[in-house]
Design a protein that fits this description.
Number of helices of chain A: 16
Strand order of the largest sheet of chain A: 26-25-23-19-15-14-13-28-27
Number of strands of chain A: 42
Largest sheet of chain A: 9 strands, parallel
Helix content of chain A: 10-25%
Largest interface: A-B, 68 and 68 residues
CATH architecture of the domain at 2-155 in chain A: Sandwich
Oligomer: homodimer
Strand content of chain A: 25-35%
Distance between the termini of chain A: 43 Å
Radius of gyration of chain A: 25 Å
């Protein structure tokens, strides 16, 4: 049951699309909460007992159980995802309280909101909004799982990428020119490490201008794209939110002419600086701007591009004209005087504090289809609407073909238009675990096409870190290795012992039928792909406590190694399972394991997969790209004594409509394997235990 | 066997004091290493097999096994101890390679040195010195343990603090005045949470001038000290390395007059700025300066102070005159022009990059008893010699009484003069584990009196974080809760549910006979107090892999919980042990556990201790301060079937000589408990299993 409470005059965010199950509440306030008005906003508080867990909040630091910290939704470009942080790039205001009477809460507010999850006081949840205009949804249900499902129905189905977006993808800030991109492709193909995409970070553009290509470095992007696509490799360029201020640059000139940019309080185009230097930000909350900007992507799709990543759309700001002015003023006050302790820190921070300044967000204005709105109040909708702009236009530009699209900033609702990557993480071992923990939290909030920068974006990776991270990455829908300027080269081919990289990534390709099937199954059924164990085993107290293993789809459980120099790890089995320990993409050992606590050894070249009893994991043959995958010949693995079935969801991996969609039943009993579909009759080496 | 190799003209650091076992090598280079000259320094490299582990490097990030990262010894004031960092506050150039033929290496070099422990290449250890003047010691032995013992003998015994330094200590930057200090003492005593010390951070001084007291805020420090000491509470003030430049300030004037400060290349006193604003740094490498500065501590000991922490002695620099000048020059180049992307980052970082600049370290000069030396070349000796200065003077000032002394910066050799705390950590869960991992690494390098800021220095702690951290802190010799300006109050009394804090800290006091005894035993025998399991169980492959449990002394193993919201943890028992699960300081349950892997539940108020079979853990009664502890009445806990003995080392906890030292044998067989000492004949409630 979903009750909606309207506070003030909410801004329509588009997060909720299915209102069928929602009742407007007749009560004055959400029943279980105490309510206080505080400085224009509200504070909802609820005392929780010791054992209650709180899930949700999407892209955030800390545990799957969010208890014990405060989280603020205010999309932030912050590359140091430590335990102290309160905001990352996304704003995902959905939580589920796992108490005796479970309760879901979604606060549909585009401005700042804080969830103090038993941080200030260890027994009290507080939800604090900065302003008074929002919808508050209270969702009750039989179980946490049921509540999440209701929420997912309410916000609508998720974006589905093309099949090739499930292949391995290689990125770096930046491959500087055609030769460098070709070299990446060549080195992967030569090492026989599968690859489906190479990314173009900001340096492919001419002067960091959106929808331009630097022809000195990329003389013929169309030809390069074609050449690589023949090898099964897609080029994926970045698009930034800021539009360079430069006379003669059509995007800038059209934007100015049509009043398409964010304004200052006097109605002048607001000047910020990002990669290109001075920029204006398109007003993506305006539908005309969305269509105008979105149709610009055609310039790149016309060159054969079929994948994009939208970046810097919190929006990130290096500095603004307003900010620089105030910084010089601070310095002028000191000039002539000595810099000493009384002013050193002020001077030092005068420039350093300009980036992503809330003062700028408070000084910019939108025209939301006629209504003037301060950006600060709708801050969390910006990246969402930039990506909606791209998505809606691409549906028009390529009506018969899915395009890969994901964004850095996000808000619930954007999950219908694209995926996300989880931003500028670091080459830290604890970020493997953070990556894992975000997966179910994001799934709850609707985001299915997700992944982190494998190997870590900032800082130098090491060979063992990259291998262990890949062993989680083989399971994430977006499997991309990306690293920052100035860091060590992080492509698999940059390290000794390439065989271990090759075999792990080949294994990913073998898993694609399963990953793709479970992705679509979860989407159609409003389920999560990645689930904490507590969701499937709510009565098992050990399962409730597990924060480093996940259920993946209906058949398997994953438990990656995420500590350096470890020879293995502990794992909890909530039921009997078959451990399949892959030594390579083609060889594995199995072990029947009982429900309970276990220690498993996992070498750097190994990948453990736990298959539930009487369930089946389908595997295809590996290939160098998804284009080469033959998903009609599947090997099945499982520990089957009663007989088992696997329902494979598949399609042509390209079309936007459902015409190519197929649901195929694979069944196993003893050593006999059956399918209900002619095209899938060929099986090879199925391993089934009785 | 220890071989010494002399390269160039080494600076005598004083790290090594026992030369008896050391042979000057007749070989040209350390035999197992390849050697290359590189830009004035040397690179020693050694290929390691997959299974070789590398221990050591003292205060550093990452694992007990240091494999998989590069570490640079260059004492650094850096408050963000993330996995990316290469230098913290200490320089501890000792490693042991745990391979088929184990090997120890100590490089006695006071300048920069990097240990690339299989980071660049996953199979190669590289040791790279920046200059060519150093001693390289190669230590061979039967085992890792044996090599560490040889090294410890070579560098001499460690500092021993007074007994009260084993009590619980409360700190904050800063308790602003007498009233605030009294309030801390009052609140602990009222809550019956034991307390032995309250710290005075920088604000007790007048204008941050060393050896002054701000009489507005602390009108009579002597009286305050006396009043608190009657309650069993010691005051511990901070001393900073930098001396304020201020006419009339005697320390400054004497230093200038006698030429006691670091100079620039032209011989002028070098001007830096730290807390007081402009400062000079005493030239602690000069013996006259050490005596002069050290004797100043008498001003505080005369007020009854008997504990000090030396800080900012890497030395930390906020900025220098040289730096400020160059920053303004950068800005002047931009002034008049627009700040844009071509110069924004340079402008932004002009001031921000001034702190702890290597350019300053390269611009300062020492007079090391006659020899002029660039600071950069001897950087890592600075904090060590500041603390040696204090230690030597305090031995003169208080010849019959031990003084609490610890430092932030350090070098091997300083362990003979003081302890260290591990600097400005954060209120992060992963810093509990970092705290644990540093303990054995520091012990190997001679540092026994050690501890981290419990609850975390930077950032806001939470109640659960503080409780779990205290549950490790009860075992560390220095048990201090400390937090930074601007963070949430972190005293135990600031949180709800004080009983759980009280019981944990009372338990600490019950453990003091054991902790104190094992401290002195380890020191006398050149052993480590905290040991990774591999050291005691070198043939047990699971023990070799454990990075989150430690052997503590000869009797017990510890395994704290370090993840948020966890109901327990996995633990590996390398032999049969008795789990003693304390629910409070006075109640516990025991469980006989078999060698192997286990999951144990540990509630927030619980503390698990594992006692080895046929070993005994002595406990005294809890008390509000160490002054009240009665260590002659001990309860013994153990799982004894053959009979067991515990050798208690004790003394009066005060004297510098050994006259009060006693070694007492406690033995148990069945329910019979014996002691070989009259004064220790009373036992109470001994729990012994047969």
């Amino acid at each position: 049951m979903i009750f909606s409470y309207k506070f003030g005059k909410p801004i329509e965010t588009g997060a909720v699309v299915d209102f069928d199950g929602i009742k407007e509440a007749e009560f004055e306030k959400p029943r279980r909460f105490s309510l206080l008005e505080e400085g224009g906003g509200f504070c909802f508080s609820l005392v929780l007992d010791d054992k209650a867990a709180v899930y949700g909040l999407g892209e955030n630091i800390r545990g799957i159980n969010k208890r014990g910290w405060r989280y603020t939704s205010y999309c932030s470009d912050d590359p140091f995802h430590t335990e102290s942080k309160q905001s990352l790039y996304g704003a995902h205001n959905f939580i589920v309280i796992d108490a005796e009477e479970p309760l879901g809460v979604f606060v549909d507010i585009p401005g700042k909101i804080t969830f103090d999850v038993c941080c200030e006081r260890s027994d009290t949840l507080k939800i604090i909004t900065e302003d008074g205009d929002f919808y508050f949804y209270e969702i009750t249900g039989d179980s946490v799982k049921d509540i999440i499902r209701q929420f997912r129905v309410m916000i609508g189905k998720s974006y589905v990428p093309p099949l090739w977006a499930f292949g391995y993808q290689q990125s770096r800030w930046s491959y500087p020119n055609e030769a460098a991109v070709r070299e990446v492709a060549r080195s992967y193909r030569e090492a026989k490490i599968p690859l489906d995409a190479v990314y173009l970070d900001i340096d492919y553009m001419e002067g960091y201008k959106d929808f331009t290509v630097d022809i000195d470095r990329f003389p013929d992007l169309g030809a390069l794209s074609k050449e690589l696509k023949e090898q099964g490799i897609h080029l994926v360029p970045i698009i930034d939110a800021g539009v360079k201020i430069e006379d003669g640059y059509d995007v800038y000139e059209e934007g100015v002419k049509n009043g398409y940019f964010l304004k200052d309080k006097d109605g002048k185009d607001y000047v910020t600086a990002v990669w290109p230097g001075k920029t204006h930000f398109p007003d993506f909350l305006n539908s005309s701007v969305r269509r105008w900007f979105g149709m610009k992507y055609k310039r790149l799709t016309d060159m054969g591009i079929d994948g994009f990543w939208n970046d810097m759309n919190e929006p990130a700001i290096f500095y603004s004209e307003r900010g620089i002015k105030s910084a010089w003023e601070k310095l002028d006050n000191v000039r002539g005087k000595n810099v000493d302790m009384s002013n050193f820190f002020a001077v030092r921070d005068a420039f350093a504090s300009l980036s992503n300044s809330e003062d700028d967000y408070k000084s910019m204005y939108h025209n939301m289809d006629g209504e003037k709105l301060c950006h600060h109040k709708v801050h969390n909708l910006y990246g969402y609407n930039m990506t909606r702009s791209a998505s809606e236009a691409l549906a028009e530009i390529k009506p018969n073909e899915r395009v890969l699209l994901f964004s850095r900033a996000s808000y619930i609702g954007m999950h219908r238009f694209s995926g996300i990557w989880t931003g500028d993480n670091q080459s830290w071992w604890n970020h493997i675990l953070m990556n894992l923990k975000m997966l179910p939290s994001l799934n709850m909030c609707g985001f299915l096409y997700i992944g982190a920068d494998i190997g870590g974006f900032g800082g130098d990776t090491t060979r063992d870190l990259l291998l262990r991270w890949l062993a989680l990455g083989v399971f994430t829908p977006l499997m991309r290795n990306h690293s920052a300027l100035g860091t060590r080269n992080q492509e698999c081919c940059a390290f000794e012992g390439q065989e271990e990289f090759r075999e792990l990534i080949r294994l990913r390709y073998r898993l694609i039928p399963y990953l793709y099937s479970e992705y679509n199954k979860a989407n159609d059924g409003f389920e999560m792909i990645f689930r904490p164990l507590m969701l499937d085993y709510p009565k098992d107290k050990f399962a409730r406590d597990v924060e480093d293993q996940l259920m993946l789809g209906d058949e398997i459980m994953i438990a990656p190694v995420y500590t350096q120099n470890a020879m293995g790890r502990y794992v909890y089995l909530p039921e009997d399972m078959l451990l399949v320990m892959f030594d390579s993409s083609s060889s594995f050992k199995t072990e029947k394991m009982k429900k309970g606590h276990h220690y498993i050894e996992v070498k750097l070249n190994q990948l453990p997969v736990f298959i539930k009893k009487n369930r089946l994991l389908p595997l295809c043959e590996a290939a160098e790209s998804t284009k080469e995958l033959d998903m009609s010949r599947l090997e099945l693995i499982g520990w089957v004594d009663e007989g088992a079935e696997y329902i494979l969801y598949t399609d042509d991996g390209i079309s936007r409509d459902d015409k190519s969609k197929r649901v195929i039943k694979l069944s196993a009993r003893g050593s006999e394997i059956k399918t209900d579909c002619e095209a899938f009759k060929a099986y090879d080496g199925g391993i089934v235990f009785e």
